[in-house]
Amino acid sequence: MLFNSLQFGLFFPIVVLLYLVMPRKMRCPWLLIASYFFYMGWNPKYAVLILTSTVITWLSGLLIDKASEKRKRLVVAASFLSNLSILFLFKYFDFMLANVNKVLSLLQLTVVEKPFDVLLPVGISFYTFQALSYTVDVYRGAVKPEKNFLRYALFVSFFPQLVAGPIERSGNLLTQIQDLPEKKLWNYDRVARGLILMLWGLFQKMVIADRIAVLVDEIFNNYQMYEWFGLSVGAVAFALQIYCDFASYSTIAIGAAQVMDFQLMENFDTPYFARSIPEFWRRWHISLSTWFRDYLYIPLGGSRCSKWKRYRNLMLTFLVSGLWHGAGWTYVIWGGIHGLYQVIGYELKGFRSWVNQRLRTKTDCLSYKLGQVMITFLLTDFAWIFFRSNSLADALAYIGRMFTRLDFWSLFNGELYQLGLERPEMNILFLGLVLLLLVDLIRYFRKERLDAFLSCQNLWFRWGVLLFLIVAVAVFGIYGPEYDAKQFIYFQF
Amino acid sequence: MRKNMIKATAFLLLAALLLARLNGIFRLKRADGIRPMEIFYEQEKNSIDVIFYGSSHVYSDINPAVLWREKGIASFDLAGTLQPMWNTYYYMKESLKYQRPKVMVVELVRAIEEREYIEEARVMTNTFGMRLSREKYEAIQVSTPDNKLAYLLGYPAYHSRYTELSREDFGSYKDTAEGEAYKGFYPLFDTKEFEELTDISGITDSRELAPKTEEYLQKIIELAREEEIPLVFMVSPYQIDITEEQRFFNRCGEIAKENGVPFLDFNRMYEELGLDPGEDMAEASHLNHRGSTKLSAWLANWLQEKYELPDRRGEIAYESWGQNALRWEQLCANQDLREETGWYDFLEKLTGNPNYTYVISLNGEYDSREQPVLEVLPDMGIPLEIVEQGGIWIHASQEEKSFPGQMDMQCHMEFEGSDLLVRRNQSGVQMIFDGKNYFKVENGLNVLVYDELNQELVIAAGFDAGQGYACVW
What we know:
heterodimer, A: 2 domains, B: alpha+beta, Rossmann fold, 2 domains, five-stranded parallel beta sheet
């Protein structure tokens, strides 16, 4: 079930209330049952897959603990191979087959028929990576293997972060699960702050992301109908959509976990205020970036090697990261562009300093920093076009039109309100974005999340903001069956 | 801890109040299914003698006000648009928790329904009026394959109405002119002329009903049997090509016969009803206000005779039926006025009706000398000074105001939720009702009429002196 579904609105309070009053020993099994129930809401069959990954990685942890150094490596390899095979089968098999067939048809050979149909299980990339990190952590001796299967199973399936992160590490989440019976759960302030985060996440998702999605879908699916203005708006809108969509999920996950006294890691830290691409990646989907850093980039040699090797490592990491996001060339190219940005950034570092010196540019002032933020945003936004486009050809055509169909009349002809969202919807969106900007500015300058900021404000202000958010979500959130006034026009029968 | 609990409770209470208010604003207030059920709950317990169930062929064809006037029958139209049999069944079940009618009449035009589920909008209109109950839960279960929780709560389905809200969304239905005097009827005042009514006497064979429709028709029969309440089936006059539909209706007749339920097929009874194809149809499948009066009068007599229903006129508990009849008569008078184009008859109907507040303005070259308007006006109560000098005369139930001549003037009147501003200045006369100017002719007679009983603007018409006082709407 999704966080923004009515089902979750029933599920979460029931789970939490029972969790709070349950005997301490029952807490872990209860959360495990709840997590599997949550996951099976999509498709009960998926439970078999997550259980398989859980059993494999749990056993590998136990085996690594007892095996010799040489065997340890074998166990890690076996754990990776089996888990990645499952991931490959369910996520990448169709993609691979399509590419093989493309090559075969180029060579005028018979194409391979699809042997079976698979549905991509929700969250498989997230929990597989989480489970694999455990194998490596045990291998590295960073954590001790968990002997209790139920505890470990809860670590892999913990419902708040199960399907869209943050991708937790055993050092953080598993330790908290081990401490579960000792937790003092009744803490008003903590619960309230968790709920505030969930509310803010729902606002981001339901009021902003799902509304802006209408505009993004319209523009990206019909880009042939739009010129530079519409296409630029579409690209910026997608940057905001994916941020609100993704970050909101993490915010709700962190909030939901906090209600139950679990501290999950931060996943998004005002990424669009980043002043460089490397900084963007320190702020965007942090749990994944650090996963790739710790389990791929550094094992490849990281940056403590020759320049060219470092560039190779960067490119490899970002290409794999692209592929992790989706089985399609658009994602791979998106990852590749981010890798290239960084390689070019390093290469041009000296040149940039030289230009700044020659032009006597002040680098420690707001305008310079703002310029950096804007350039970084434009670069990431450009890459997002590949991420969102339906195919590589579409992405290239989109960009082509955006830079060649320059007609400034569209700035004045009210086109903004004809991009899929009617005027009132657009106005609601603008208001939502203003609020998002304010919350992110607070986060950036005061280093405070909304819950922390509100908890040190006066009660009337805090309640005012919260009631506003509740009303905004209740009224302007996109949810429920699609209401179409036109359906009612035929009044009589 | 205790302080925190109080704080949390206070906040949740505040949020709940706010959400409840939002629900009140956004909920659908449709007269084609939701409102009849909501107002049904407001009726005095066990006061209704006849309940008519079914689709629009109930709420536009059967008028409880006529049944009241004819025989003093206390009846109610508990129907919804395109209502399939399963929703009719649950409307019946729900209604029997509050009323114990002496007869239940089910209109069967929607027995033609062959779909398993109907459009989402109709699911809403046929379930959202019900209170949260087992019946509502079951009704939703059988009405829709998806979004069951959303329909049960209601709010998720209509929360996005923010772009189409109107003033009435901010009030309660009790604030409307009718309140509980509303008996579920939704009159159609349009007229579509037909040369003749379809002859279906040759269609005698029948066609099986869709399984779900038949299942619920049988349940309806069973329900009436269990409750020991007489049941009547009827089919309203239905003018479009009904060859196939009639076969379904014939099947309904067979089922009725098998179960000993009286079956009134009005498509075979046009002459008995006295329906006039040129006057009594609103469109091909519904009667207009005249046609519905004929059908309702026939039903009143038949029901009274067959079931010996009590005449409730004069009983204090039934006052609201009397009010409903008064309102209905006034609505008919309003319609009559709207259809009137001759200045004399118009003025006569206007000035003779005690429920009207009206504004008469004589302006410009208002005396054409071709018609005896000025001679007639004083007899209708319009002051002589207005007739002689021109000017504006306002007649309300409480007061009369006269503004003779061409001097600047301004008069503001407040009605239930509406404003009327009449003013005269350099730019001329303005008759502004709820922000819109209804002034029609520069030279002649301008009239604006408001019905105080039904709280509605009836008509604003002008009679142009330059064109022999021809009516301009």
